Amino acid sequence: MSIALPRAGLIGERLAASALLIAFAGLFLFFALSAPAFLTAGNLKNILVNNVAILGVVAIGMTFVVKSGGIDLSTGVALDAAGFGFAFALTAAIAAPLAISLGLAAALVVGAVNVLLIARLRLNPFLATLALLFIGQSAQRLLTGGGSPIYLGNRSYADVLGAIGRSDLLGIPTPVIVLALVAALAFVILHRGRLGREISAIGAAPEAAHYSGISTTFVLARVWLIAALLSGIAGILLTATVRSYIPMSGNGYLLDAIGAAFIGTTLRRDGRPSVHGTLIGVLLLGVVRNGLLLIGWNFYWQQVGIGVLVFAVLALSYGLRREGRH
Amino acid sequence: MTLAQTEITLPGPGPGRVRAWTATLSGGDVTRLVALATVALVFIGFAVTTRGFFTSWNILNVIEQSAIPGILALAMALVILTGGSDVQTGGIDLSLAANMGLSAAIFAVALRAGWGEPAALAATLGAGMLVGVVNGLAVVRLGILPLLATLAMSNIVGGLELVLTENTVIPATSPILNVLSAGSFLGLSSLTWVLILVSTLAAVILHASPPGLRLYATGGHPEAARAAGVSVGRLILGSYAVAGFTAAFAAILSVSRLSASSTGTGEMLLSILAAALLGTVFSRRGVPTVAGTLIAVLFIGFLSNGFQLKGLSSNWVSGVQGALILAVVAATALNRRKGG
């Protein structure tokens, strides 16, 4: 579509595509100038560990789903499933590597249900994952006697949890390394490989993809398993970081992950999701949250501020793109 | 695939007769029957097995409790039917529940500050509608995805509610609130009457008036609607504005019910969304309708109520709700594919 645009339109489109980057850079600069504590190594690390790493992994999973034309409201369920599986296995004195595998397997069970419902039965992803979200809430209440957390404060878990949540390699915290690896791998799969092209085709024109010989079922199956696996990794990271499994805490990431993935779509002229776009979306949310805190806004005003800023970035980007079309 | 199926099954006397019977019902009809039968079965099941379920007091009670979620679900249905039902780009208002929370807070705070009732009502309804108008402008004028624009808006609105109430419950009393919370007419409570009136109004506008037809045309095929002279943009903007106004209206009902503003209203969002989406399976063409939405809301209401009366742990409620949504949706999808 963008090929047929007149030249004058292209400038607007280019501007629209860079609106996100300009907004991010502007906000970063603003906070750096107005909050002395913002631009310090310690604080930047804090943003990456506490605001970016876990959300980033979840949001990249969401990016796969959105790219394939769907949406995943059950991402928190997969995250919680992994957290529960991992925490439960640890309390049952199961060795750490096996406990992690069990956690990820639990997340993949959620993914497999989505594969059956969405890839196989072709149910509307919105409805199917919404139903799963409700079922996940019940399941967690029933498994935890009404929603009581599993605390892993016992010293015997400290080594394992510390190794995942609080260790670092050459000064880079482990959760950030995990995010970097996930992002790099996701970038290769989604933007450089055949699977990525097929996912993209299904998202853009499912009928055309089907008739050009792409096996929609198998491609979608992989999309939903990847999304669940990434939510699962995030669940393990979260459990290790907060040293407990808290039922239904995964839902806290749902709206931010959707937001980040769709904010990321403003980065590209065709308005399609991308791994790098999503990462910038996650960074934007993280920087704003942290920055508003540092300039002294209380929690309530932070929420308003994040909403307004996200709204402004979207308005700028979509508005410019629209100008370009006229 | 469906083409091949019909070609094969057309001749032949045996299966042909069975087909002839189903052929008189379109896929949409079968779907609707399956969905309605599921609801009826669940209702009858509770009525037979649960003491106290099938009593006029209990049934009226459930309907009254369904008034606020029902009105919000109708607002959601309006936005979805006007904006189209595409998963990513269709109409949706994720700020609806948060808007109700903010509006309730505005109403309670205005009354506490000594505003007169008319002024407080006007401020509340105006603020709710303003949120809707901003949503609508973002979607129509700027072309932001509804999912995204209303998500950001729900953050803003939810935050403003917290700023206003500092996350506390603000008590409120006024004459109109008393009428709404304690009044009754012909044995039905005020809230029940409000639900009936709002539903009737919505049904008349959506299903028996030219504007209603234009709204469905806008959601079903915007290009065709535009070609036929429908001002698509204005109708979509209007749907968000009305939804915002409705959220504020529901907020006043909520303040009357609780005699206070309440925190955590945003959590209602998913069940409102579930009701509006589930409601589409009760319509022939799979679009949101007033009757379908009401059936879905009452269904969810009776389900939770039945579980409560049965003494089942409330931990089960949302799971069974989810499983039933799934069952109905799956049955619908399979049927639609078979029916073509």
The parts of chain B where pLDDT drops under 50 for at least 5 residues are 1-24
Which oligomeric form is depicted?
heterodimer
Helical stretch tally of chain A: 13
Q: Evaluate the radius of gyration of chain B.
A: 22 Å
Strand content of chain A: under 5%
> Any low-confidence stretches of chain A, pLDDT <50, length ≥5?
1-6
The percentage helix of chain A is: over 70%
**CATH architecture name of chain A:** Orthogonal Bundle
Please state the average pLDDT score of chain B.
81
Number of strands of chain B: 2
Main sheet: strand order of chain A: 1-4
Based on Cα principal axes, name the global outline of chain A: globular
The CATH topology name of chain A reads ABC transporter involved in vitamin B12 uptake, BtuC
Largest interface: A-B, 50 and 47 residues
Envelope shape of chain B: globular
Order of helices and strands of chain A: HHHHHEHEEHHHHEHHH
Return the domain count of chain A. Answer: 1
Order of helices and strands of chain B: HHHHHHHHHEEHHHHHHH
How would you describe this structure to a colleague?
The complex is a heterodimer of chains A (326) and B (340). Chain A is mainly α and 326 residues long. Chain A has a single domain, classed as ABC transporter involved in vitamin B12 uptake, BtuC, CATH 1.10.3470. Helices cover 76% and strands 2% of the residues of chain A. With 340 residues, chain B is mainly α. Chain B has a domain at 67-266. Chain B contains 16 helices and two strands. In chain B, strands 1-2 form a two-stranded antiparallel ribbon. In chain B, α6 packs parallel to α8. Chain B is globular. Chain B starts with a helix and ends with a helix.
What's the quick description here?
The complex is a heterodimer of chains A (326) and B (340). With 326 residues, chain A is mainly α. Chain A has helices spanning 7-34, 41-67, 75-91, 96-120, 125-143, 158-165, 174-192, 194-204, 206-211, 216-242, 251-264, 275-294, 299-325, and strands at residues 150-151, 168-169, 172-173, 244-245.
